[in-house]
Every structure is written in C-alpha cells, then in structure tokens.
Specification:
Structural class: alpha/beta
Order of helices and strands: HHHEEEHEEEEHEHEHEHHHHH
Strand content: 15-25%
Distance between the termini: 27 Å
CATH architecture of one domain: 3-Layer(aba) Sandwich
Keywords: Hydrolase
GO molecular function, one term: hydrolase activity
CATH topology of one domain: Rossmann fold
CATH superfamily of one domain: Alpha/Beta hydrolase fold, catalytic domain
Radius of gyration: 31 Å
Organism: Genlisea aurea
Shape: elongated
InterPro entries: AB_hydrolase_fold, Fungal_lipase-type
Pfam families: Lipase_3
Length: about 325
C-alpha cells in the first residue's frame, strides 16, 4: 500500500541481470506463463495437446471451479524433471466470488527445517484465497507426497496467475510445512495482493512474483483502497461532485416547472401565433411573478454554464455509472 516498486527494486543499487543463465531462466518462466495461459483459456484436452503433455502425465485434474474452489491440475513434466501444480486464475463468476471474499484472516507460517520448526511467522491473509489454498492442499497433498517419492530427482513447483497466483503463494506456505513437501517453490504471475508484508518477506527464498510494471491486480489491496478513499475524501472532488448533484437538482426543478407551464399554454397553429399567444398570456402576470421567473431563468442558465465544462471533465466516469 505504501511502497513503490521502482524505489524498492529498481533503484541505483540494483544490478542488471544478464548472461546465458538469466536468458535460460527467462525462457523457463515464459514456458510456465504459457502453461498458465493455456490452462486458463483452453479446454483441458486441448490444453494438454497445445502444451505437449499426454493424459498419462496428469496426476490430478479438477477442471471445474466452485466458490472458494479454483480449478487446478497436477502434472509430471518429464522434459524439465518437474512436478507442476497449476492453479487457474479468475475465469468464471465463482472465481470472481472467491476473489471478492477479501476479508483478512490470521495466517501463520511455520518454517520447517531438518531439525524441526525453526521459526513461526505471524500475519494475515486474504480470506478467499486462504480457503482456496487449504481446499487444494486437502485434495492434493496425498498425491503430491506419493509423486515426490516416485520421482525423487524432480523439482516441485506451484504455478498460478492473478487469483491463482495469490492462491499458489499461500498454498506453497501451507505445503512447505510438511517435511515431505518442504522443497516446494512457487512462481506467481501477476498475483493478487494476498498477505501481509512480514509473511511475504519470509517467502523470498521460495516464492517468485512476476509483475508487469504497475499492473493493477498486484497493486490492488485493502491498504490501497483505504489510501484511495482517504485521498478522494480529502480532495476537492467530493465537494465538486456534491455541487454538480445540487445544480442538477435545480435544473431538474426548473425543467419540470417550464414543462408544467408549457402544458397549460393553448396550442397554436403557427409559430407566429405561439409567440403572440405566449405574450398575451404573460402580459397579465404580476410584476412580482415576472421577477421570480427571470431569476429562475438566470439561475438555470448559470447552472448550465457552470456544469457543462465540469461534467465534461468527469466524462470518464460516465460508462461506469
């Protein structure tokens, strides 16, 4: 909510990454991103064909998402000697409901090493993603433990994008608390903000987040919403909007009054007759009434002249209602 990516990771003390090892790593990340894209956009059989997998490589398949239950699959990548757990990003209304379940809940991470638990990191995390991660962990843990035992030389990676990226990061924290799965690592593409800062820092060694510039999804969190609310409330926008609403009410009242007056005028055959008829009707009106009508007319003109440029500057909010 308060840190700038450019200041934290792109300052003067940053080191430019180059060389064949970096190129190979970027190609590997691009391959993982390609897996995420196909898994999110294609039917599962077509996903396997497009990415070079066969049905025998699939250990688990949960293709249909539910509320707090995102679609995921576990694959054996023999080419790269990797066990891959893929979590789909926001794809359906049920995924969206999972994403908007944004209340925070306590989330603690126990750091496991060979001698046992070496540290306990306390914090909070996104309620919907925590529930989704725990659901996946419950279904996939037995299969993953068996797969790690069957393929001892294989790495274990958890991959996700957007909503699936945040869920993948939290799932990695959960699975690493088991000794058999403590080598799990995560690559999260454009992950939704999902945990407090201390928890995120504790996962630097095993979670890699790939973010495209100032992408909105990773930047959008409860903290950023609170900052935006405070900024808008403190700015002149709020008073301008209130003034626009008030002037709109005045214009509406004048319009209704003019419409009511027009409905009582007798119909005329020609424009000339209308002008003459209106003059004949208005002449007997008292001088006090004429003053009130002139004030209403000038007020409507002033409100129209004031609101026209201001409303144009607010035209960006029109389509969003």
């Amino acid at each position: 909510g308060v840190l700038r990516v450019s200041r934290e990771f792109g300052g003067e003390d940053s080191v430019r990454l180059k060389g064949p090892e970096i190129v190979a790593e970027l190609r590997f990340l691009l391959n993982l991103l390609n897996l995420c894209w196909h898994f999110s956009k294609k039917p599962f059989p077509l996903f396997l064909t497009e990415t070079g997998f066969c049905p025998d490589d699939v250990l688990i398949q949960e293709p249909k998402a539910g509320i707090l239950k995102p679609a995921f699959t576990v694959l054996v990548d023999h080419k790269n000697k990797t066990l891959v757990l893929l979590i789909r990003g926001t794809h359906s209304m049920k995924d969206t409901l999972t994403a908007v379940t944004g209340a925070v809940v306590p989330f603690h991470h126990s750091v496991v090493c060979e001698g046992g638990v070496s540290n306990l990191v306390l914090g909070y995390a996104h309620c919907g993603m925590v529930a989704a991660a725990r659901w996946i962990a419950k279904l996939a843990t037995p299969c993953l433990i068996a797969a790690v035992a069957s393929y001892p030389g294989y790495k274990f990676k958890i991959i996700g994008h957007s909503l699936g990226g945040g869920t993948a990061a939290l799932l990695t924290y959960i699975l690493r608390e088991r000794k058999e799965l403590s080598s799990a690592t995560c690559v999260s593409f454009a992950p939704a903000a999902c945990m407090t800062w201390e928890l995120a820092e504790s996962g630097n060694e095993f979670v890699t987040s790939v973010i495209n510039g100032a992408d909105m999804v990773p930047s959008f969190s409860a903290a950023s919403v609170d900052d935006l609310r405070a900024e808008v409330t403190a700015s002149a926008w709020l008073s301008d909007l209130r003034n626009q609403i008030e002037h709109t009410r005045i214009l509406s009242t004048v319009y209704r009054s003019a419409s009511a007056l027009g409905s009582r005028l007798p119909s005329m055959a020609t424009a000339k007759a209308k002008v003459a008829g209106a003059g004949a009707i208005l002449r007997p009106v008292s001088s006090r009434t004429q003053v009130v009508m002139r004030k209403a007319q000038s007020m409507a003109q002033a409100a129209s002249a004031w609101s026209r440029p201001t409303l144009n500057s607010w035209s960006c909010i029109g389509p969003r209602r």
